[in-house]
Structure formats: C-alpha cells, structure tokens
C-alpha cells in the first residue's frame, strides 16, 4: 500500500510497522527463539514482512548471539560464545545495532586468536 500511496508506514506503527516484529531485548529474543507466539500474536508473513528480526544490540543476550552465529554458519562452543559475548557487548555499547558484518569480524578475530 505504501508503494501505491507514496506514504511510508512509521517504524513503530502497530502490526504493520517494521519494529512490530523486531526484538532487541534479550528476554524477548530468547522467548522468540523458544516459542514465537510468546511475543507475537500473528506471523510477520501475514502482514507483509519476511520474518521476525532479532536485532543485535546492547540489550541482546547470549541466546540471540548464539543463534545469529549459527545462522551465519559458525559452530562455536559455549566457551567461545561466552568469550565472544563480552566483545560483542563492548561493541554494542558503541553502536545502535551490531550487523552481521560486525559479528563476522568479531568471530574471525576470535578464531584467529585461538
């Protein structure tokens, strides 16, 4: 509808806004990974979004970090995740969002040091 009318939907608009299916808080991310219906009463696909977005930021937890590492093709041990988590949090304190390229750089740096 936005393309037809030329009006853009606000990010924080309920149901159809981009943030309606974005989660940064660690407790929400963990809940979403375990059971999506915990925090979303409808599927993002039903209202035009491809999927739920687990935003990696300063409020994110180990569960979301670990899941994103897996989705990027890395198989890290619990010890490696723990070590990565500290460096991830330090970066997240300086950036609003830690993107996949940032995370890849952190992982590769850690793997090279091992």
Question: Which helices and strands, and how do they pair?
Answer:
Blueprint: H1 2-5, E1 22-23, H2 26-34, E2 53-54, H3 62-71, H4 78-92, H5 100-113
Parallel strand pairs: 1-2
Helix pairs in contact: 2-3, 4-5
Strand fraction band?
Answer: under 5%
CATH architecture of the largest domain: Irregular
How helical, in percent, are the residues?
40-55%
Give the overall average pLDDT. 81
Question: Going across the major beta sheet, what is the strand order?
Answer: 1-2
* Cα radius of gyration in angstroms: 16 Å
CATH fold call of the largest domain: H-NS DNA Binding Protein
List SSEs in N-to-C order: HEHEHHH
Shape summary: elongated
């Amino acid at each position: 509808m936005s393309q037809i009318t030329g009006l853009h939907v606000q990010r924080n608009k309920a149901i159809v806004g981009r943030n309606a299916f974005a989660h940064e808080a660690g407790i929400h991310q963990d809940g979403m990974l375990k059971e999506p219906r915990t925090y979303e009463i409808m599927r993002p696909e039903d209202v035009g979004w491809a999927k739920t977005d687990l935003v990696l930021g300063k409020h994110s937890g180990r569960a979301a970090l670990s899941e994103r590492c897996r989705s990027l093709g890395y198989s890290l041990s619990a010890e490696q995740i723990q070590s990565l988590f500290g460096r991830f949090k330090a970066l997240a304190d300086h950036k609003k969002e830690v993107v996949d390229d940032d995370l890849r750089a952190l992982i590769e740096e850690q793997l090279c040091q091992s």
